[in-house]
Sequence to fold (491 residues):
Amino acid sequence: MPIVMATVTAVSRARTILREPIFWLVTLAAITYATFSVAQHERFRTNAYDLGIYDQAVWLYSRFEAPWSSILGVSILSDHFGPILALLAPLYWIHAGPETLLVAQAVLAAAAAIPVYLFARRRLGPAVALAAAVAYLGFVGIQHAVAFDFHLATIATFFIAWALYFALTGWWRAYWPAFALALATKEDVPLLFAAAGVYFAFALRPRWIGVATVGASLAYFVLVEFVLMPALPGAPALHHDFALGLPGGTPAEQLAFAFGHPAETLAILLDHPEKRRTMVALPAGFAFLPLLHPLGWLAGGAHLLTRFLATNQAIWELSRQYNANIAPFLAFASVLTLARVATVAARFAPSVARAIPALGAAALVVAVLGCEVAYKPPLYLLSRESFWNDEPSGPDLREMLRLVPPDAIVGAQNQIVPHLSERRTVYIMLTQGDLDYLVFDLDLDPWPFRPEDLEALVDQLLADPSYRLVEQRGPVLVLEHRHDVRPPSRR
Fold:
């Protein structure tokens, strides 16, 4: 009898879930995200940085081995400290491959809309809830993140969103595990929660929760950034994402400059057109509502400071994954702004207050559509026939990759590496002495080589008796390194 009752309850809950519009919205988003990223991978448009790196790391985790990256030449934890990645390893027992990572990322990024929806429905009703979820799912930072390979910042959105939901609803027993999981996603997430913790300390009860959030976040950041990551083999003294473009030889001196020279620091924050473009695009995706709430400008400010003061220009841009993990903070701040406006309006103009949810929902939807027009985030490419076109050499390259043994040490071009990264050693086209195989496609992007340099390298290897041409089909070549044959001497 208990089994029957449990089955009836489960069926009833399943029916309830299936009636929720958020279930179908998240499912559609996850399918869209996964379709885009897997199609990119199948057409050799993904990269060693970052899909090949993470595919190799999760493959090693799935075999209970340390996540050493032969591509980087260091432990992956010294590149980005994300031990949460080990939780994806069991998926590789079912199917090992980059596609598994891309689908998992799509599901996690889409499912982060669920706590946004639940919180908005609780505060303002179903219209705002759906609009907030749509704004999050269509956010330019999320679209670029799921379109650019795989990254910890993208999967972080799921854990961040649930931690914020539990905090803002006072579900503290669930908050702390979610908070811990969020910190474990990437080394910069603690800075966002330190900023959010300031808001928690003033707005939520008990106040010590906010104080503890700030303290735990900063302590974890210092531990990871200045103790754990530098101690790993091959790691730099300071992670490259936090190398600030400020005067001073040490992080402490640079921070002292920032506080002592605010005008100069502000000038650095705004000194590039791409910074200003990103600064506008992020709140624009949520109708600029996050700017009207402390959670939005505290977390958003921490995000922009760590990005725009850095020397790495790539992290200033809208493209790639760098603006994914701020999305949940902006989404919740938008809902909190509308809730505050509705509360204030209810005191003075009840009829206006009743219109706030509809107006807020409309504003969020218009913001999403406006950003689609203004910034053209990448998922619109799914409607283009050219997106679905294969590389001319794609069929030959896919077939010839099977010629490479699974345990071989391989060198390959950047866009080929993610198709060969479930192995202990794979390089981006390094003609090192321990290579067993080399794979080329001269029609693909030759990065990090110039086209003429890559062609010269191929000619050199073909003339070297220590390399055997296994097969060639047009621009695609597979070479085997014969270790028993000595290369010709060079004088």
